[in-house]
Amino acid sequence: MRILFDKYHGTGNDFIMVDIRNHAISDDPDIIAYLCHRRFGVGADGLIFLDNSAEHDFSMRYFNADGHEASMCGNGGRCIAAFASSLGIIQNTSVFEAADGLHTAEIMSADGPSAMVKLKMADVRGSEWSGDEIFLDTGSPHLVKYSPGVKNIDVLNEGRKIRMQKRFGPGGTNVNFVEENPSGLYIRTYERGVEEETYSCGTGATAAALAWSVRNNISSPVKLNSPGGSLLVHFKREGPDFTNIYLEGPAKHVYSGEIEI
To answer: Does 73 participate in catalysis according to the annotation?
Structure first.
């Protein structure tokens, strides 16, 4: 089978985009893991199917690099909105279906292969810090840890120690190491399903922004810097809970290609 695809990234978090509106493609985990493999396949943090929706502009299915379908991906959600725009499915705004419900996205600007996209995230129920950490579900589960000297932390090994701890249930968690600096927050993420550090994580950036609102009463918007670039998180805080959460940042088309499987 020959698969046509497009490669996108959002602040270094990269995805294989496949339009399956007119033809079915296997969601076999081995095939998806092969496509995401950085030496034997295309190479990506995840794969995203864009499909038809009966009631909305399109639907999104997200698979981690290990081949298994996962929950919401914030950077992937921004990238699929840019992808849908390139296909002519949407203009500047859209409503699409994802694993955690409906999302709206706005193409704020576009310049060649790059677009600035603002994605509405799911509401988040509040939580409290326990020592130097807090757990939040922003469409995917995230542990946020206050981590001074974050640029020097061994994210791969420290993240693995936490990722499958029993307190996070059978699915485990993503782990975000965060510290505050004059330009905002700096974040590094160990991402489950990829099982290594990624350059950026949209749901992780969202979790970190909300966590710092709880910790230090930081107001919206919050700027987050990661190894792959910068994101903005907008939100409204209502007591312990958060609504009107938006993840804003770049989505870039890298190239189009085809691969035989």
So the answer is: yes
pLDDT tens digit sequence for 225-256: 999 999 999 999 998 899 999 999 999 999 99
Concerning whether 36 is annotated as a catalytic residue, the answer is no
What local confidence, expressed as pLDDT, does residue 1 receive? 86
Give the domain extent around 7.
2-120+250-260
* Residue of 17, 144, 201, 207 marked active site: 201
> For residue 128, is it within any domain?
no
Model pLDDT for residues 117-143, shown as the tens digit of each residue:
999 999 999 899 999 999 999 999 999
In a domain, 127, yes or no: no
Indicate which residue of 16, 18, 73, 105 is catalytic: 73
Structure token digits, residue 133: 């950490």
HSE-CB for 102 with a 13 A CA cutoff: 8
